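Entry 12.
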Amino acid sequence: MYKKVLIAEDFQDTNQGISDMLRDKLRIPVVQEELYCDKAFNRLKYAVGKKENFELLITDLYFKGDHVERKLTSGLELIRAARDLQPDIKVIVNSMVDNPVKINALFKDEKIDGYVCKGRNGLVELVKAIQETYHNRTYVSPQIDLNVSNNVFELEEFDLMILRGLADGLTKREISEKFKRENITPNSESTIDKRVSKLFDEFGARNTNQLIAKMIREEKI
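Predicted 3D structure (tokens):
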């Protein structure tokens, strides 16, 4: 079983519950927890410097902002920073998100090892996830169906017109101007910006180039 685990979770009670479970049920000797992604990353960095690496990172995806200034503001940013620092660290995401497209993107793009959907059986599932990932197997909560087809998010013609404009090298402002010239509505830049952001989320893309590449691979444009 793992000997050293780090938990990143912005609710103290949740942190404590996971920590107690890891120590009591799984007998993991070193369990450390942080409420902020930056502090979690600093712990990882310090451990690597001391050659006392963490073996597993358990992190939420979303962290509420407060008065503390942050560089890493989400679990996704923490995962990427952790993997840049320590490529072999295993990662389990423990989150409320239940969108299979987003979860599938975490496995495909971020190479996470396990995903637990918080809920009534969350701690039980987390135990299973830890055991499975320790044996180099992936784990996902049973209520999440990752057999994601291309039709999970149905692209509308409006989306396709935006994507074609982006593929042609147009900016969102230029697409807005083009739509206005062609009497296509809605055509405000803010509307196009929001739609592009939604496409990023639905297809797990980090930027426009990656979104277009995904669309081309899936033969959507």
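Annotation: The CA atoms of residues 7 and 58 lie 5 Å apart. The beta strands are 4-8, 30-34, 56-59, 90-95, 114-117, 139-140.
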